[in-house]
Amino acid sequence: MLDPKLLRESPDLVRAAIAKKHLSVDVDAILALDADWRNQLQLVEALRGQQKAANTDMAKLPKGSPEFIAKVQEMTAVSAQAKEADVALKDVADRLKQALMTLPNIPHASVPEGRTPEENVVFSTWGSCEGLSPDAKAHWEIAGFEKLFDFARGAKVTGAGFPFYIGDGARIVRALLQFFIEEDGKAGYVEVNPPIFVNAASATATGQLPDKEGQMYEAVADGFYAVPTAEVPLTNFFRDEILDEAALPVKRCAYTPCFRREAGSYGKDVRGLNRLHQFDKVELLKWVHPSTSYAELDALRDDAENLLRLLGLPYRVLLMCGGDLGFSQAKKYDIEVWSAGQKRWLEVSSCSNFETFQARRAQIRFRGKDGKPELVHTINGSGLAVPRVLAALLENNLQADGRVKIPTALVPYFGKEYLTFA
RNA sequence: GGAGGGGUGGCAGAGUGGUCGAAUGCGCAUGAUUGGAAAUCAUGUGUUGGCGCAAGCCAACCGGGGGUUCGAAUCCCCCCCCCUCCGCCA
């Protein structure tokens, strides 16, 4: 959510942001609504003031006195008026709030212009694809794949996109998770094991509700939502709290399974491990001082990149253009790993600075030097998502003998040097 | 799941219909005192929103939402959370 004052005082800044993100929002209508709201608010406050003053007077009058009775009669009318005005105020306030929710975050000046994903800028690349086999197989075509990654049984037991991981398949997932968490810990992120169901208030604070409701699995009886990412419980940890300025930046990481309905997606992009309804991911999250947030974003991105470097998996970093940035992000990098078999880049992390956009919704603040609470900036990104890293690992490291060579850094976690499909 | 007791400012804790944004204590800040500190004394000390160039003025907030009333921290209803006991259980 944007600061309503920003809209009021610099509507052109908001218009420019909408244009850069290639969205279409009627700013003038929201400004008009805001003016209505303020008028109505003043009316209500004037009436309340009247009631309050009368209340003080009446407290001093004898209960049954003629003056008292006259006051009651007078204030009955005011009370009715106040109630009516209050209903009208709530109505305008609701509509204004909803309208404000349609305003996207302001993109940072360093965000490139552009409308489509093709216009994202390649920010950096690491590693070489040359050593990789030109006729590498997509991971689902590797002989014995279904013995370790059983999608058919998963579909029987639950549904499509809920695979079983078996033997070395389960082992490699566990090894990757442990490796990620350990490395993230070395980079200064405190490990957190959060709830994987959240309530509606939490899902609203991070923006899953109301817009993306259809993307979450829901425990209807209790009003809980299965987390689509650890970002949700992690960010909400400090919801409605005021942090100590000296404690910033707060850096945390969390592993959770992630649940996404992925309604409407289909086609070859979703084959194998590319897109699942349940997958494992370690999320990195920082609550930072506004003055340092862009340096902290770059640092977080590098922390995520480092995991791929340690695994020896080639990747590139995209700087998202305005049109592909997303509604609530001020700046975003995507990290994509090279998948030798599919001959395409797979997104494994998306590192974003939300500035105060999330913090305002979630009311996460710190106390500044002058003693006044100020909103923090929030930054997050994956570090990393398992299935696509695993897909690249299987495809890139497949040996002629049908085994997969485990990267040196991962061997201590996996416990052996090769993964076998037997 | 059942029964009972609770949720008030940074913390503790009063307040059971009006003069209550809320006593008192602790904490914190500033000042006085002191060679310095402790102790003591004095003053101050929440958040949000609106109006205003500003000083400031006004309104809201006593777990959340609704209701009764001229008026609600206080009465009624619903929900959430915490504690105690019982049941169940990894």
What can you tell me about this protein's structure?
It contains 13 helices and 18 strands. It starts with a helix and ends with a strand. The longest helix has 35 residues, at 66-100. With 422 residues, the protein is α+β, with helices and mostly antiparallel strands. The mean pLDDT is 93. It folds into 2 domains: 4-100, Serine-tRNA synthetase, tRNA binding domain (Helix Hairpins), CATH 1.10.287.40; 117-419, Bira Bifunctional Protein, Domain 2 (BirA Bifunctional Protein, domain 2, 2-Layer Sandwich), CATH 3.30.930.10. The strands form 5 sheets. Strands 1-11-12-13-16-10-9-4 form an 8-stranded mixed β-sheet. Strands 5-7-6 form a 3-stranded antiparallel β-sheet. A 3-stranded mixed β-sheet has the order 8-14-15. The chain binds one RNA strand of 90 nucleotides through helix 3 and helix 4.
Topology summary:
Blueprint: H1 4-9, H2 11-20, H3 27-60, H4 66-100, E1 121-126, H5 145-148, E2 149-150, H6 151-157, E3 164-165, H7 168-186, E4 190-192, E5 197-199, H8 200-205, E6 218-219, E7 224-226, H9 231-236, E8 241-244, E9 250-259, E10 278-288, H10 293-311, E11 315-319, E12 331-339, E13 344-355, H11 357-362, E14 364-367, E15 373-375, E16 377-385, H12 386-396, E17 404-405, H13 411-414, E18 418-419
Parallel strand pairs: 4-9, 8-14
Antiparallel strand pairs: 1-11, 2-3, 5-7, 6-7, 9-10, 10-16, 11-12, 12-13, 13-16, 14-15, 17-18
This protein binds one RNA strand of 90 nucleotides through helix 3 and helix 4.
